[in-house]
Amino acid sequence: MDYSFNAKTFRTLLHAAIADHISEITAQTAGDSTTEETPEQLLAGMEQAIDVMERADADAAARQGETVLSDEEITEIGDFALGLLEAIVDRVETVSGRQERDLTRLAIPISLWVARQGGHINKLELVVNSLAAWANELHDTLQIAELVRVIREIIDAASDELRKDLEQTNPMRPWRILNLNYGIVATRSHDPVLMDEAFAVVVENLPQEARAFFREGMQQMDAVGYPEEVREVVEKYDRMWGSGDTLH
Questions:
Q1: What backbone phi and psi angles, to 5 degrees, belong to 121?
Q2: Which stretches of the chain drop beneath a pLDDT of 70?
C-alpha cells in the first residue's frame, strides 16, 4: 500500500474495492425493510465525506500544509467515514459470507488522513485488524519499517478517550492490540531505533503489560534467532521492566 495518501486516491481505492460487490449487495438487500440504510445511501454518504476530505486537502495544499478545518471538524469527518466504512464492510461481508480484506483495509488511509490533518481517531477496531493483517503479509524489513511508522502515526492520533484505556478487563480491546502490535512489528523491522521508540510507547501506554511483553519478547529471541542488535534492545527493556515485581 502507498502510504503517501490523499482523499482523491482514497476515492479510487474505494471504487476498486466495492466494484465487484455493489450489484450483489443491492440485489440481496432490495425490499429488506429491516435495513436502515441502503448500499446506495451508504456509498453516497462516503462520497460526500470524500468530497469534504478532498476540499480539506486542497485547502491545505493552497496554504502550504495549514488546514482550514479545526481538530474537532477533522475528527468528526473521520468518525463519519470510519462509521460508514464499518457499515459497508458489514453489509458486503454479510452478503458474500467471507472477509473482505481490501475493503476493510481502507480504514488505514482514512485513519492516516485524520492523523495527518491533525484530528483524533475514535474508532480503532477496523484499522487495528487491517494493520495486523497487513503486517502478517510483509517479510521485507524495509516494508515492515514503513508500516511501523504508520502504526505510530495512528497511535499518536488516538483520542484522549482511547488513551484512558478504561476497558482493561478486555484483552481484545483495540487500544491494547494496537500498542502491542506496534512493539511486535517494530521488532520484526530489525531496526533498533524503531524498536526503542516502540517499546517506550508500549511502556507508556500499557504499563501493566510491559513485564509480560518483554518477557515474551526474550522468549521469541531464543525461538526465532533474531540478529544480535535486535536482541540487545529487547534485553535492555527486559532488564528494566521484565524482572521486577512492579513497574516504576
A1: -95, 125
A2: 1-5, 23-36, 64-66, 242-248
3-state secondary structure of 121: strand
134: cell is 497487513
Q: For residues 131 and 61, state if they share a domain.
A: no
Domain boundary among 83, 103, 121: 121
Exposed / middle / buried, residue 160 (Cβ in 10 Å: 0-12, 13-18, 19+) = exposed
Q: Which of 151, 64, 170 is nearest to 107 (CA)?
A: 151
Sign, CA dihedral 248-163-4-102, equals positive
Count helices and strands in the chain by DSSP H and E runs: 13, 0
8 A C-beta contact, residue 78 and residue 113: yes
> Given this model, what pLDDT does residue 94 score?
84
Q: 105 and 17 share a domain?
A: yes
Q: Which domain holds residue 190?
A: 124-248
Crossing angle between the packed helical segments 228-237 and 210-220, to the nearest 10 degrees: 150
Q: Which residues of 209-227 are buried (b: 16+ CB within 10 A; e: fewer)?
A: bbbebbeebbebbeeeebe
Give the N- to C-terminal CA distance of the chain in Å, as an integer. Answer: 39
Distance CA 102, CA 96 (A): 14
Cell of 103: 475493503
Cell numbers for 201, please give them.
510507547
Looking from the CA of 130 toward its CB, the CA atoms found within 13 Å total 26
Cell of 127: 484499522
Which cell numbers in the block locate residue 151?
502504526
